[in-house]
Records
---
Amino acid sequence: MIGLHDTLLKICGITRETDGISAYEAGADLLGVVRAPGSPRYASDETIRSLHAKRIPLAGVYTRLEDIGNEAEYLDYIQLHFRHNADIIRLVKEMHSVRIISVALSTDPNLLDKLSEYQSGGADIFLVEFANGFSSDAERAKSLRQDFRLGVAGYIKQGDLALIKKLDFSMIDVSRSLEASPGIKDPEKMKTFIMEALN
């Protein structure tokens, strides 16, 4: 948890068991494992099973519905990172008995309607990805926060944390800014970011 609030800190793009263990031991609440074939951040079945065996909470990140497979039994959340609706949320919940993170893009002209639809479908967390980075769209984030308690993603840096914590978002989802290279975390960046988030 971050501060006295119930904000989840999710470290996403974990491809190596060692990075996942380090993130969790440093204080992350949740690890994101990407299941988009061909992505440099793709997490193998073996990595997912190993992290699950250590009782580390996992969110599988999917860019297509058809990619959700048997690995879902090792996941605590399924993150729908593609265009979807309330019916798809209900379908995935029914098929896999997991919590749902529904992602919307900040550039969506119908963003408020989309978040309302996610709410009606029973999504557990609404996550807005700020396409140009959180710091470039902080005012938009403030405005959205007035209507929904949502999570934030989109190249979040350590300098963004003060405002993010002040606005009490439901989740901070960070990935690229903590990497040494795509899919490989920088241990010091990750540790420093998590420490700042927790204080």
---
Amino acid sequence: MTTLKPLALGLSFIALTLTACGTSLPQDLLNTNSGAGNQKATVTGSLIKGDGSAATNATVVLIREISGSSQDVATTRTNGSGNYEFKDVIAGEYRVAYVVQSEDQRKRGDIIFYTPSDNRTTDNFGFISTGNFRFDGNSQRSFQVPQINIGWRSQLIPNGDTLPSNSAIRFSWASAPNARSYNVDIRDSNNNPFYKSPMVNTTSFTWSDLKGNQGTYVGQSLKAGDTYYFLVNAIFNDSSSGPAPVTGGTTTAKFVMN
């Protein structure tokens, strides 16, 4: 099997680097914005599975947005009731994401591939991110993130299939809870962007011309014998919804061209 470079979480939606662990934010890690107060906030929320039960021991990341880039500032795991908490959050712009990897897997850059026998990849999103929310540091606040349903039996097709290089490829998946639209993100074997589909409000997409539209792959056709990978991104809402979930995605499936 071709060895992939670590996937950026959520590809075009989320690109993160693990920089801190635990639920409290060290003061030497982040500097309060100029002119902001020095009060601290607490961010709380909960995760449930597709059947409505608590998602326990799931990895949750607090992400800070700085000058257009994203930085992990704290990670935690949900408790036995599916609840999580980030304490001592200083002034800044943040979002919260669930990720399918454990903290150690994220540190190593491990990829979680779509495997029908693995409940992590068939019953859970690969990731979900909320929209951005701001804390000005001028008063103590608690941010309650709306409950996030991480369950998605995505049923990705194709998965591990060898496909003819002269025929259109039909990608299909099951509907995600509360999603309003989707797109398909295809990568080469080195995790370079190859093709991104238009947004669709159905649970399938047919790629007819098999030509790339990303970076150096614009106009290039898929190559026989090469392995490619894809995931399906789900859109829940627009970025104005604050701490509510806005984007999510599956784990990664592969296909090989014949």
---
Amino acid sequence: MSPSQLSLGLQADPPVTREAFVVSASNADAAHALDRFPDAVGGVLALAGPQGSGKTHLLTAWSSRTGAILLAGELAAVASLDDLRGRLVALDDAERADDETLFHLINMAGEAGGGLVMASRLPPVAWETGLPDLRSRLNAARVAVMGEPDERVLRGVLVRFFAEASVKPSPDLLEYLLRRIERSAPEARLVVRRLIEAAAPMQRPVTRALAREVLEAETKSGDLPF
């Protein structure tokens, strides 16, 4: 058995960094826009894309790099707005924030030292709001769209997740998984974790054959949406 194929277990909470984010045509515009933010324009930037496209990863890495306050949409209302004045703010699941809080966050983003990056599945123009002033601000927000992870991104995240368990996947294993799993980072992590857990008891190598066993078993049980 190759030492690179021994299953040593995944890290529970691997660090979220910009360097670990795989850039491709599906997400390059968003990644580069966030790399430059806040720029001369400043104000508000929105990341819009489907679940699993990497919005939260980018947002978390950006907040760590810039010192921005990271909030979740439904919890934003509990934050002290005065404490956020003149600060950079990262707002995940932004469409779930209440109208009044979102209105104030956007306004404060234009103040000295301020800035707001919002992440959501839909662009701000599609969010529902009953406040006309908020509607106009949402319509004016800069938007960087992220697509579903393409093959390059999915391959990259699979290699990274395997590396966290000290496993070097073979090319045929990667090709097998790329053809069969849902194109999202959360699903890729789930699949890698299942393979590591399946290999561990008998110290089996993580191979295409093992992947086929696990995926077929999960498909029959309905645990994974393949």
